[in-house]
Every structure is written in C-alpha cells, then in structure tokens.
C-alpha cells in the first residue's frame, strides 16, 4: 500500500506491506471541515474579528490609543500571516486611522527572522509600510521585568510589548508537545520573553510532569506559567487561527486572550483528536515545512508517535532537515553523551532556575529514545548528524522499514500517523 507523508514543501511517498498495516491514525473531521470550507479564509478571519469572544471589537479597544503592538509568530511557525495580518491592520485602522502599529515578531529563543523571511511571511506591502521589530531574547537592555511567575522565574518581556497601549497577538492553535496547545498566551511566553525567563519555565521538573503533554492544559505547570505571563504583559486581544493539514485556515478565534484561546483549543480537539493504534512500528512525519527544518523541531512529531508506539517499538519519522540539527548545544548533548538516560536524568535533577538552553528539547528527545528506536527518513546529507545524535538514518520509507524489521521482526505490526505534530492521541 502506498502512503504519503508531508515532507519539506512537498510529499514523501513509500510503500508499506498492507498485510501488516493496522491502520492510519487520523481524526474523523470530515463533516466539521466541510462546513468550514463553505467560507473563504478571509471570511473566517473577518467573522471572528466582527464577533470577538468575551471582548469588545479590536477597533473599539484601540480607539483613542496610539501605540498598538501586534505580536506575530516567527519563521518557524506555519502561521499564514499574509492572510491574517492585513485583516488585523484593517480592523485597527477602523478604530484609529492614525494609530502607530508595530508588529513584534515572537522568535522566543530561536534565531532572528531574516528580511527575506519577513517578506515571505507578510508580503512586501506590510514589510515596507509597517514597523516590524524582531524579538531578540538575549537583548537584555530591551527587556522589562513585569513580575514573577509561579515557577519562580522573573517574567521579563520585550520593552516594545511592555510599553504598548494595546497589546494584541496573532497566531495559531495546534497541539503542543508540552504546553498542551500553541497559541494564546504562548505569543507572550516564550514568544517575546527573555531567554533567562524562558529557560526557567522550561525546567526539567515541569517537563517531567505527566500533565505537560499534548492536548493537556489542566494541571499543566508550563501552561500555568505562560498564562500568568500573558496576564502580567496585559495581552488584551488575540486572533488565533486553526489550520488543516493543507495549511488552510478552517477556524479563527478572536477576542479575550484566555477564553478565545480555550474556544480555539476545543475546536482543535474536534478536528485533530484520534484514537491510538498500538503497534510495533509507527510511521509519521513532522508535518512538513516549516516544522521539519531541523531535528530540534522534529522532536514534536516524535512525541505524537510516542503516544501510540509500543514501548520498545520503532518510530519512523520523515523530516527534511534543511536547517540541520537546530542548535549546536542540542546536537552536542547527544553526540557527546555516553548514555541517553544521562541526558534525561541530568535535566530532571537541574534546579529550575539553572535550566540550560535547549535542555527541555533534549530531555524530551531522550525520553522518546529511551523507550523507542528512532529512525529518521531524510536527505543523505543529514546522515551524519542523525547518526551522531544516536538515531538511525534512512533515505526512504522502504529502507526505514527494512531496518525496523530487523529490530521489531519481519511480522511486526505497523500504523501510519501522517502528521505527528497536528494530531492529538487520546485513548
């Protein structure tokens, strides 16, 4: 049977023995999506702006206010800003044609977004006519401490956001492998927070919590910190979209930063929740570009497979890795370690306020690798880095299956999880 997985900006196909295939893990969302497709993407976004949840319209909120800051996701997120930001700007100008609008790009602790990436994200018109500031988590002179988080970390955020008359966030909601869901409060934290603050939140004890998982907000200590950060920053209004597997806008939730986000997460559940199929081999992807640019981000897709692959089984994940590992320190932890379990144990033992950069991603990858054999299907040029990080390289799905059969057996069961990032596995 031929299968097709998102890979880079295209698809990766391969063949799987139909006699061993137990099924494909996907949400049954046909009816809900069909209803969404009755509207254009612009209509979906405009309708949410016209009918905000638990809030006045954005045009009313900005009336008489001068300094309007819109936080926006960076180049690592597939947020279709070209289809959202013009609507937000139009709504702001309805309320105040003379408002000073700044787009603050929420890079979190990622590298800075380049000019070409900004043009690709927003288009020439917005880049040439709207003030855009790219957040730098290491620019300590432009951070302001607005309070203390439940974790004990200082909540330091970008001065541009702290000094806004009205703070707005554009973004999207999808499952998140330790914050429960993306969107909402995440625009502030980690989006525009200092590196010092972010690492305090992403500590080993919080990451180790059984509640810090995909699709979980209740009792999630990481979410609790993020929620408080958004309150301290006075995030007043959000416009969060939901995307289907083809990156089309199928839902939009605007209004109160907390309740609009919750409404969005419930919609995400309705179109992305699927039951597990427990098998020896799970074949998945990281959802294609932009999330499969590096190994660092590819950990997300692995956690989707982790939720349905039996302990001791094999996870095969297709990831283009056009940007390599995603971080030198992250890479060196695995290349230089003697035992994968040491990475995990050291992270859990590290005091929260001494959390190191990328420790959390390494901890989660170590957790997956301790219980599953990971094979990454990618371009031949990535073979060395994958093997350096103590995972297995394969150049095709068929080659990966041959390797997996050597581990799990020639008659081992197989399930396909087409998108390991955007699927919520719930029994």
From TrEMBL:
<protein>
    <submittedName>
        <fullName>Nickel-dependent lactate racemase</fullName>
    </submittedName>
</protein>
<dbReference type="InterPro" id="IPR048520">
    <property type="entry name" value="LarA_C"/>
</dbReference>
<dbReference type="InterPro" id="IPR043166">
    <property type="entry name" value="LarA-like_C"/>
</dbReference>
<feature type="domain" description="LarA-like N-terminal">
    <location>
        <begin position="7"/>
        <end position="215"/>
    </location>
</feature>
<dbReference type="InterPro" id="IPR047926">
    <property type="entry name" value="Ni_dep_LarA"/>
</dbReference>
<dbReference type="Pfam" id="PF21113">
    <property type="entry name" value="LarA_C"/>
</dbReference>
<feature type="domain" description="Lactate racemase C-terminal">
    <location>
        <begin position="276"/>
        <end position="425"/>
    </location>
</feature>
<dbReference type="GO" id="GO:0050043">
    <property type="term" value="F:lactate racemase activity"/>
</dbReference>
<dbReference type="InterPro" id="IPR018657">
    <property type="entry name" value="LarA-like_N"/>
</dbReference>
<dbReference type="Pfam" id="PF09861">
    <property type="entry name" value="Lar_N"/>
</dbReference>
<dbReference type="InterPro" id="IPR048068">
    <property type="entry name" value="LarA-like"/>
</dbReference>
């Amino acid at each position: 049977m031929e299968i097709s997985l998102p890979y880079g900006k295209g698809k990766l196909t391969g063949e799987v023995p139909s006699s061993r295939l137990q099924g494909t893990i996907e949400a049954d969302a046909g009816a809900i999506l069909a209803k969404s497709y009755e509207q254009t993407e612009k209509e979906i976004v405009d309708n949410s702006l016209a009918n905000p949840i638990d809030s006045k319209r954005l045009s009313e909120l900005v009336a008489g206010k001068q300094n309007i800051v819109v936080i926006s996701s960076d180049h690592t997120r597939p947020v279709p800003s070209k289809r959202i930001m013009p609507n937000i700007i139009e709504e702001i100008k309805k309320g105040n044609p003379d408002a000073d609008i700044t787009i603050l790009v929420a890079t979190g602790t990622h590298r800075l977004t380049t000019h070409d990436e900004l043009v690709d994200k927003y288009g020439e018109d917005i880049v040439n006519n709207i003030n855009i500031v790219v957040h730098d988590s290491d620019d300590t002179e432009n951070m302001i401490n607005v309070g203390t988080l439940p974790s004990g970390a200082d909540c330091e955020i970008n001065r541009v956001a702290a000094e806004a008359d009205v703070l707005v966030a554009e973004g999207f909601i999808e499952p998140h492998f330790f914050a429960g869901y993306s969107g909402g409060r995440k625009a502030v934290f980690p989006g525009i927070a200092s590196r010092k603050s972010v690492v305090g939140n992403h500590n080993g004890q919080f990451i180790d919590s059984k509640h810090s998982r995909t699709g979980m907000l209740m009792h999630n200590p990481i979410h609790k910190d993020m929620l408080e950060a958004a309150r301290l920053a006075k995030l007043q209004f959000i416009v969060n979209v939901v995307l289907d597997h083809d990156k089309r806008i199928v839902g939009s939730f605007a209004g109160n930063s907390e309740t609009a986000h919750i409404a969005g997460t419930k919609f995400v559940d309705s179109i992305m929740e699927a039951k597990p199929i427990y098998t020896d081999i799970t074949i998945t992807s990281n959802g294609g570009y932009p999330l499969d640019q590096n190994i660092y981000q590819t950990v997300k897709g692995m956690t989707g497979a982790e939720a349905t692959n039996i302990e001791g089984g094999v996870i095969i994940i297709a990831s283009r890795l056009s940007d390599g590992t995603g971080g030198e320190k992250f890479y060196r932890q695995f290349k230089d370690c003697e035992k994968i379990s040491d990475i995990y144990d050291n992270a859990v033992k590290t005091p929260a306020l001494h959390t190191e950069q990328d420790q959390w991603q390494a901890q989660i990858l170590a957790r997956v690798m301790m219980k599953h054999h990971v094979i990454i299907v990618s371009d031949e040029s990535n073979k060395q880095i994958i093997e350096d990080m103590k995972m297995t390289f394969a150049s095709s799905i068929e080659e990966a299956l041959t390797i997996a059969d050597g581990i799990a057996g020639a008659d081992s069961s197989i399930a396909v999880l087409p998108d390991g990032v955007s699927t919520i596995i719930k029994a």
